[in-house]
Design goal:
Low-confidence stretches of chain A: 486-500
Helix content of chain B: over 70%
Order of helices and strands of chain B: HHHHHHH
Radius of gyration of chain B: 20 Å
Distance between the termini of chain A: 30 Å
Number of helices of chain A: 21
CATH superfamily of the largest domain in chain B: NADH-ubiquinone/plastoquinone oxidoreductase chain 6, subunit NuoJ
Mean pLDDT of chain A: 87
Order of helices and strands of chain A: HHHEEHHHHHHHHHHHHHHHHHH
Number of domains of chain A: 1
Mean pLDDT of chain B: 81
Strand order of the largest sheet of chain A: 1-2
CATH topology of the largest domain in chain B: Four Helix Bundle (Hemerythrin (Met), subunit A)
Structural class of chain B: mainly alpha
Number of helices of chain B: 7
CATH architecture of the largest domain in chain B: Up-down Bundle
Structural class of chain A: mainly alpha
Low-confidence stretches of chain B: 169-181
Number of strands of chain B: 0
Strand content of chain B: under 5%
Radius of gyration of chain A: 22 Å
Helix content of chain A: over 70%
Largest interface: A-B, 51 and 40 residues
Largest sheet of chain A: 2 strands, antiparallel
Shape of chain A: globular
Distance between the termini of chain B: 36 Å
Shape of chain B: globular
Oligomer: heterodimer
């Protein structure tokens, strides 16, 4: 029935899994006193091949593999490329900034690569059981990575908080999946999409949707499910924070798009107002809290919450307009946020001697290139034209206006103005003349891998800001494949235990 | 007969769950959890899910609970202290849970088209239609991919336990990860 062999449908995930296993094997067979740093190159090469493989998947017709559990389409390829790109940048960043003699570098790289397997799979799963397992794979690897700096008290604190709250949220998602199975008798997304509108127990479907939304909104750190974000970003090593704030979020947004636009399009009148409220709350809470922060990473964590709010504004858009805007914003946000975290990693170092905003005073005089890069990414986060952030916000808010949520767009614009205050504060501090008594911090070590990572982020941000056409086109075709009604599936197969 | 069993074990289950929250000593809570798990297994059996019932006993009441009690005893955890935070959590948490359960119960009770379950009906001695056979057909056929994916999940859990437990000996420990599996 399916001319494309199933393995091609999960090719990027398979490559990433093999890379992870290879890293573990090589790590175990190297003598203990040898540097593990080169395992990072192995991971980066594997990720690049996976990225290339996911682009190659565009050649196949849209369809599912493995008995309708995974799908390849323009939508999945868009998010695969995005996630692999983010992971690649995070790996390159770690290569030069992880302390040379850290004892478990092998596990570190393997965990990042395995986490990428989960995130990629999350975007392509069309079976809720696969969704759940993929989410767990990505979550567990990030829980562990968040606590990787065990010397400080904050590392384990971040890991435990993230683990407890994250497991709680996953339980909500699982409960939602169980209820939707109870209402429709299947866990396949396309079949649910067909059966949910005609299900006899609409209250059950509603409860399922509500519980699933709670679980997913936690993962994208939207208010009021955001409390974990600042502590986790602050406690996690900065390269990990760069990964955490972008890749799992991109995957979770892909899942959210799939859930609301593909499973529950008929309940739009219910989830659209709900997401409206969450979007406004996230923007406002995130920006107001960010204004009061002294720690740079905490400030960026609250700014990440605010950006989740801007992104959710796109969900007010109808059909493919909303999906395309959300997908584009995810890409733009990922590029600039990974970039700003990369610069902060270089400035502050892995151990973060410099964590407060005041520590960045005079940065542009100490190292002009790093200083200007920091200001460049901050400008993009504000959303000034010729950067990715501008077009991201532009498409998101115009999708909202298009969907009739004009008030939402206005609140979003006001919030962007508010956000400019704290981004500019950091930028101005960096551009100030250093005071004489301030001890000059050590010069950061900048290697070729970091240069590659940062130039990738800069290039993407610039391309998205100056010639957004190609990416927008990709996002639109992705949106269309998500909207395509499922191919006539052979009679909704006998489920395992159909409700009598 | 089935009905009596159902009420008996449903009662045990509820009593165990309430006792679990009530107790302040971790070992008492762990032991009540065993009661909950075992009575749940009997309820599964009554619904005709014999495989699930046995798995519940082996995995939860057996393996997981042994680990639980083991860790509690190793850490020599004392009586739980009531802090301001935990009192506040109890004040806010209990009403919130009651509201959530009430909403869910209303939804499930008002759902139409769900026929009442027939206790003990699904149990069969016919080897070809036992749900072990059905389950394995689904698990190794339609759901092969998720089944294989769990191996990656477990691999990550092991990897994480190693990464966390090595060297510094921080107590975030492997126990959580094992429980997660």
């Amino acid at each position: 029935m399916n001319p494309v062999p199933g393995i091609y449908r999960i090719l990027p995930e398979a490559i990433l899994t093999l890379t992870g296993v290879a890293i573990m094997l090589v790590d175990a067979s190297l003598p203990p006193n040898l540097s593990r740093r080169y395992l990072g190159f192995l991971a980066a090469i594997g990720t690049t091949i996976a990225l290339w493989a996911s682009v190659g998947q565009l050649a196949f017709p849209q369809g599912t593999g493995f008995f309708g559990t995974v799908e390849t389409s323009a939508f999945t390829v868009f998010f695969h490329v995005l996630i692999c790109g983010i992971v690649l940048v995070a790996l390159l960043l770690s290569l030069d900034t992880l302390p040379e003699h850290s004892h478990h570098q092998g596990e570190y790289y393997a965990l990042i690569v395995f986490g990428a397997v989960g995130m990629c799979l999350l975007t392509s799963a069309v079976e809720l059981l696969v969704v759940f397992i993929a989410l767990e794979i990505s979550s567990i690897s990030t829980y562990i990575l968040a606590g990787y700096r065990k010397q400080t008290g904050r590392g384990p604190e971040a890991a435990i908080k993230y683990f407890l709250l994250g497991s709680f949220a996953t339980a909500f998602l699982l409960y939602g999946i169980a209820l939707i199975f109870g209402a429709t008798g299947t866990t396949e997304i396309y079949q649910i999409a067909q059966l949910a509108p005609i299900a006899q127990n609409q209250p059950l479907v509603l409860a399922a949707m509500a519980l699933m939304l709670v679980g997913i909104l936690f993962k994208v750190s939207a208010a009021p499910f955001h409390v974990w974000t600042p502590d986790v970003y602050e406690g996690a090593p900065t390269p990990v924070a760069a990964l955490l704030s972008t890749a799992p979020k991109a995957a979770a947004f892909a899942l959210l798009l799939r859930v609301v636009y593909e499973i529950f399009p008929h309940l739009r009148s219910l989830w659209a107002p709900l997401l409206w409220v969450v979007a406004v709350l996230s923007m406002t809470v995130g920006n107001l809290a960010a204004l009061r922060q002294q720690n740079v990473k905490r400030m960026l964590a609250y700014s990440a919450i605010a950006h989740a709010g801007y992104l959710l504004a796109a969900f007010a858009g109808i059909g493919s307009i909303g999906i395309a805007a959300a997908a584009f914003y995810t890409a733009a946000y990922a590029a600039m946020n990974v970039g700003v975290f990369a610069v902060i990693t270089l400035i502050a170092g892995y151990d973060e001697q410099l964590s407060l905003i005041d520590d960045f005073r005079g940065l542009i005089y100490r190292s002009p290139i790093l200083g200007s890069l920091l200001i460049f990414f901050l400008i993009s986060l504000i959303g000034i034209p010729f950067t990715g952030g501008f077009f991201g916000k532009f498409y998101s808010f115009s999708a909202a206006v298009d969907g009739g949520a004009i008030a939402l767009a206005i609140i979003g614009l006001l919030n962007s103005g508010l956000a400019a205050a704290y981004y500019l504060r950091l930028a101005l501090v960096a551009a100030e003349r250093p005071s004489a008594e301030q001890a000059a911090p050590p010069k950061p070590h900048v290697g070729p891998a970091v240069i590659a990572a940062i130039s990738l982020a800069v290039l993407t941000t610039l391309v998205l800001g100056i010639v957004p056409g190609a990416v927008l086109h990709a996002a639109q075709s992705a949106a269309h494949t998500l909207q395509v009604p499922p191919q006539p599936s052979e009679a909704p197969g006998a489920p395992l235990q159909s409700p009598q | 007969m089935h009905l009596i069993l159902f009420f008996l074990f449903a009662g045990f289950c509820l009593a165990g769950a309430i006792n679990l929250l009530w107790q302040t000593h971790p070992i008492n809570s762990a032991l009540s959890l065993i009661v909950v798990m075992t009575s749940l297994a009997v309820l599964y059996l009554l619904l005709g899910a014999e495989f699930l019932a046995i798995a519940q006993i082996i995995v939860y009441a057996g393996a997981v609970m042994v680990l639980f009690t083991f860790v509690v005893m190793l850490l020599n955890a004392g009586r739980e202290e009531r802090t301001l935070g935990s009192r506040a959590a109890a004040r806010v948490g209990f009403p919130a849970v009651v509201v959530l359960l009430a909403v869910l119960a209303t939804i499930i009770l008002r759902a139409q088209g769900l026929a009442s379950a027939h206790l003990g009906q699904g149990l069969t001695s016919d080897p070809n239609s036992s749900n072990l056979v059905l389950l394995s057909q689904v698990l190794f056929h339609e759901l092969l991919l998720p089944f294989e994916l769990t191996s990656v999940l477990i691999l990550i859990a092991i990897l994480g336990a190693v990464a966390i437990a090595r060297r510094e000996g921080s107590e975030v420990g492997g126990s959580e990860r094992t429980a997660e599996k």
